[in-house]
Amino acid sequence: MNAKVDMPTLHAIEGEPAKPVKTVKLSYAERAILPLIVAAVLIALPFLHPGYRLLSLAASTGVSIVALCGLAVLFGQAGIMSVGHAALMGVGAYAGAILARDLGLGFFEALPFAALLAAAVAGLVGLPSLRVGGHHFVIITFAMCGLFTIILTNGGTFTGAATGLDVSPIGTILGVNFARLPNLYLLVVFFVLASMAVMGLIMASPYGRTLRSIRENEALAAALGVNIGLHKIVAFMLSGAFAGVAGILQLYFLQHISPDLYGAFPSVYIALMVMLGGPRMLLGPLVGALIVSFLPEVLNLDPIDARIAYGVGLILVILVLPGGVMAGLAQLYLWLRGRVVKP
């Protein structure tokens, strides 16, 4: 939970001016207890023998959380929504697959290249945000997904065309066999916790405060000397690096990738997760990913019913909890603690 819980974080709808509010400070214990509990549960899960299906779904959800942490930095802190993050994950995944096939690089050797390449592509994608914003830019990122899948499908043997590319399991490193699902799951958990830690550091840093100033009032931030364009591009590149790491994790988790994994629908689901969970809260990406990934499993929904449930859920969150589910839970906690913040 963040060091400060402010009403714009919990209530402000993107684009609406925030009202002046008091600030509620949480103790160090309050800030640390929930993330520590979450980390303990994530690490303990494979030792509880949940079954292959549940553990596999948890690992897949963890991959999504890594990408969501990057989108939360971009949308939650800078106020720029992108529905093209699945394509950025694809850049990282295909970079890892091609490096493994052509140069024999394994997961750990290819990881930095996948992150850097996805960050570079994200920087290029972010350039239009310097001239357009809002729904216009969302449309641009949506179109990028379609263009990316076309390139992959028509890439011939280089990209594997419509059938995609395969990769061998990570194998055994330092005595740990990552071909076993529990070990691979713990590797994903490591990157989930690392991503959340980096996200938290960005949020608490002067750079995070600068991004929030751009989100709240871009004209005022520019008047105060903030280089708006540079900070937007850097935010995109940071977000892309997260997506690149998620992409190569997905590659070695599935061991097969194809263009349909990185099109428009997967990108919409990623945006849905971050909006449901709460883009401005540290645990928001995790909560959003859990809702979207586990809701059909818990309610035994087929794909069509699941999409309807997602749509209804998103509408309810926008109307009732515009800051996301995690923000609503934080507000509930403050209310239960008897410290309701009033303007």
The helix content, as a percent range, equals 55-70%
Order of helices and strands: EHEHHHHHHEEEHHHHEHHHH
Please give the number of β-strands.
6
The major beta sheet can be summarized as: 2 strands, antiparallel
Please give the count of helices.
Answer: 15
Our estimate of the beta-strand percent is: under 5%
What is the CA-CA span between the terminal residues?
Answer: 21 Å
CA-based shape: globular
Mean pLDDT, as a whole number?
A: 85
Structural class: mainly alpha
Tell me the name of the CATH class. Mainly Alpha
What does this structure look like?
The chain is mostly helical and 343 residues long. The chain has a single domain, classed as ABC transporter involved in vitamin B12 uptake, BtuC. Helix content is 70%, strand content 3%. The chain contains 15 helices and 6 strands. The strands form 3 sheets. A two-stranded antiparallel ribbon has the order 1-2. A two-stranded antiparallel sheet has the order 3-6. Strand 4 (172-173) and strand 5 form a beta hairpin. Helix 12 (264-277) packs across helix 13 (284-299). The chain starts with a strand and ends in a 7-residue tail after the last helix.
Care to give the gist of this entry?
This protein is mainly α and 343 residues long. The protein is built from 15 helices and 6 strands. Helix 3 (52-77) runs antiparallel to helix 13 (284-299) and helix 4 packs antiparallel against helix 5.
